[in-house]
Each structure stands twice: as structure tokens, then as C-alpha cells.
Amino acid sequence: MLEKMEEFDQEKVIEEFEALTKDAERVQRETLKKILEENESAEYLQSLGLNGRTDIESFRACVPLVTHQDLESYIQRIVDGDSSPILTGKPITTISLSSGTTQGKPKFIPFNDELMENTLQIYRTSFAFRNREFPLGNGRALQFFYSSKQFKTKGGLAAGTATTNVFRNSMFKKAMKAIQSISCSPDEVIFGSDFHQSLYCHLLCGLIFRDEVQFISSTFAHSIIFAFSSFEQVWEELCNDIRTGVLSSRINVPSTRTAMSKLLKPNPELADLIYKKCSSLSNWYGLIPELLPNAKYIYGIMTGSMEPYLKKLRHYAGGLPLLSADYGASEGWIGANVNPKLPPELATYAVLPNIGYFEFIPLGENIEDRDHNNMESSFLHMEPKPVGLTEVKLGEEYEVIVTNFAGLYRYRLGDVVKVIGFHNSTPEIKFVCRRNLLLTINIDKNTEKDLQLSVEEAGKLLSEEKLEVVDFSSHVDLSTDPGHYVIFWEISGEASQEVLKECCNCLDKSFVDAGYVSSRKVNSIGALELRVVRRGTFQKILDHYLGLGSAVSQFKTPRCVGPTNNLVLQILCANVVKSYFSTAF
Ligand code: AMP
To answer: What predicted TM-score, i.e. pTM, was given to this entire model?
Structure first.
């Protein structure tokens, strides 16, 4: 198996994908059968009265739709060391911690060899399509990968973020080698215990191997932008390390220091070259291709909550293509990007019909093209009546339901997707937003996407001043009467009072949801408040999540901070430097 992976056969992988997707309905039926057969002895399935039946109809009739909360007591027993068949036939020995940016604390999710195999299948599939359009030469990848701490649960199971479980798996390196994705950083950097030090070393490795680097990647694109904005701060120090061959004293994790010291040799020519290139850039535009002249593209998840960072990423990327990576979650993968030429804003994911059994709850009304005058119809109040993978309709939006090989059955992932097309008979979906991320006070309903659009609109006023929104979040403040929306902005520099007042009004006006607008008009929702936070506040939030055991690789800025996320709210509020109330209504 591994031998086979080492000789990667691009056309064969594409052929296999074509075959799977040509008969997605049959493959789904067989996949469900396989999952149910493998896990027939699981207490959870037994209790639901399937009695060995593996057909779709019985499955849907017996097994309820669930959320993570419904499964928590089962998962907790597994985490605590009960090795009886609880959710799966074979005992679960590894646990993934989801990034937990939505709820404020990481969730425990079962991980096993099948999920690992699914991960590699997704990687291979999208690589085959990507490499056909953007072939890589021999070389390495500058990958901003970070591992979380891995620890043992009370019951002795290995626990870490899903990406950490993948990176640490023995199959990972071989698979990455096969798809020409070997990192230029040593393991001691990827698995280093201090994220900031690992980031510095990744950058240094990128420079040392600058001629070899074929592409730049991270799991979520945020890590790439974060890395290059850190580069702006430390580039002279990096040049100095290269010039002298002596690693900066900021690196004090012994294993990281030893590994890096082996790579670093005095190279004054390279230091001069980088120094010259950085000095001649205008506002760091095109930094990435200047530093890494042989890079073919930038790769990472760029859709959903990553979209607001695209502008900044394009700035660093100059003309280098941005290719969005695949779609999945700690709960399992869903689709691969098989149209790599599409810009991230249009990226779609073709669902792989053999990596899980998928259902979709129709949302009835598109969040994206919502008729904001129609207050009655709300996607939130639809009765969940899921349809199968091949029953979804073009142009419709759905909530994704996953049944996987690791003990999740009819699990509501909480993501909203839209069907954009079909690859053979499997849908190509676009990620729309998280379903439960919502600003609402009374009859108003604004999703993550609405917030993003509103911030984009108001952000245009800043760009006239050559400033930009570095990051943002929001909160519903019910401590005032009436309650009101609070938008937190971190800005790249000092904006004038006038401009910020205008931005605040523009934010308020840009929420065009009819429920919001009418409530604002009669003041049953108070004036929107824009709170500008200190530079570095969002980094503090990231550090906060790292402290909870989450990994930078999976970090997504929480776009709406609810009451369950009190600590993040405290960080935001403690760093407010200015605040404005809208006078738009
Ligand atoms: P995690 O909790 O870290 O496992 O993150 C999984 C979540 O990240 C998914 O449920 C999505 O909300 C989001 N996500 C994953 N892949 C993508 C993608 N390609 N585009 C947009 N959002 C994504």
C-alpha cells in the first residue's frame, strides 16, 4: 500500500475519482453498508434497533440526527478509557480536539485509521488535479504546519488536534513525499512546543531553501498571512541569522534549536540578497515570489472564514496563483478541490462518495441570495428533512450531515453549503458559512457571511486612507436596552475619527436583513457600535486558543463571540481603544 503511494500515479488517481463519482449513488449505498457492518456491534447502533440492517431507508428511520452535544456522554466514556464497542466496533484509540472557535472550547471527536486513510485520499485526489494544471518541479514545500500538544486522556487515549493526529501518523510523511509535498522545515519545528519559535524557524527554513521551494501552504490560509506579517517584523533578524550562521537567541526550545543549527550555515550572499529584495519592496507587495522565486502557487483553505484575508494574501502573493485546499473537519473530510484554476472566491469541493455517507438538510432559502425583504422566511426554522448526496439540487443550500467510519452517525456538522454543479453524479459544493454563527437580537438574523459583507463594505472607506481591517469579530450586547451589535476591528494603522464614524455608520447600513433594518428604524435594536481594538489583539486571541490546546494550523478567528466564549470577549473588551456608535438611523 505504502509502496504504491510512493510512486504516485496522477492519471490513475484521477481515473479512480472519475469512477467513484460516476456512480455516486451506488457508492454511497455501499459506503453506508460498510460503515454499518463494521460497527454493527457498537452499543449506540444496537440501541437504535437497526438489528443488522444496512440499507439507507432503515438507517434513516432508526438513527436520529444528532449534534456533538447528543454524543458527548458516549464520547466521554471513550475518552475515559472504556474500550467496549460504544460508537465503533473497534475501540477508538485516538481523539481529535476540534478547533473549538465556535463554542469557545475544543470538542472531543473520535479519530481512527479510516479517517486517516480518507485524509490521504482527499490529499491525493486534489493533488492529482492540481498537479495537472500547475505541475511542480522537484523540491520542497514551505508549509506553515504546527502541531498542538498531544496528551493522554484520563483513559490513556492519545489526544491532539485533528491536524496533529494526521501529521503524527506514520503514513503521513510517505504520502506527502509521494505528492511532492515534503516540508523544508524539520519535524522539530513542526512539532516544536512554542508556536512563535516554530513560525520563525519555518520562515528561516523557507529562506535557506529558497531556490527549492515549489509552493507555500498551510491548512487554513490564515497561518500564511500571519507568517508573512510576522516576517515584516523579524526579517532583519532572519537576515542576520543567515549572515552569521548563528540562530537568534529567541529560539530556546532545545530540540528546535539543535535541528535548526544543523541547517544554518553562514551565507552572507543570501543574507545580502534577501536584505536587498526586502528593502526594495513597496509596502511588502509581492513579498512571497521575491523571497521564493520558484514557487508555483500558494495553497491552503481560503474559503469561508478565510475569505476576509484574501486581499492581504494577494498583496503578499503578487502574481502567484492562490489555490484553495479541500473541505473537511475534524469529524471527517467531505470534498476535494478538483477545479484548482478557480479563484478562491469561486472554489468548489467535489464530495468523495466513498469517505462517508452524506446527507443534506435543504435550507429552503439561500442565505447568499436572501431576499432581505422577506422577514417571514428564515432558514433557521425549517424542519430538517435531509436528502441524499445525489438528490441535492443545483443552486440550493443545505446543512451537511455526516456519517463517518469513526463513530459519528447522522451528525450535524453545522456547515451551510451551496450546490454549484456536479462532477459526474457527485455534487460540487461551495462552503457558505457556519450555520449557528449568527447575530440576532429579535427578528433580525445575520450570518457570518452577512457580517463579512458588511465589514468588506465599510472596510472600503478605510482603504481610501491606505488602511485595512486586519481582523474582526462581533458580539451581541444585550446589557444595553435595547440590545445592539458590537463590531470589533483591528486596523493596520491610525484612522481619523471622521473616517471611523463613517465606517461605523456604513457597517450599520450594510446589514440589509429586513428584520435588522426595521428594528433599527423603530429602535428595538440600538445603534451599532464599532469598537477599535489595539494592534495585536487578535494575536492574543490566537494565543488564548493555543493555551486551550488548539493548534494554529486549525485556527479560525471567531467571527461572533457569544456568551459561551467569555474569555475571548474579555480579551476583546480589554483592548478597546476607541468606540463609536452609529448615527445611520
Ligand atoms: P475544525 O473544527 O478545526 O475541524 O474545522 C472544521 C470546520 O472548518 C468546518 O466545519 C468548516 O466550518 C471549516 N472549514 C473546513 N474546510 C473548509 C473550507 N474548505 N472552506 C471553508 N470552511 C472550511
So the answer is: 0.86
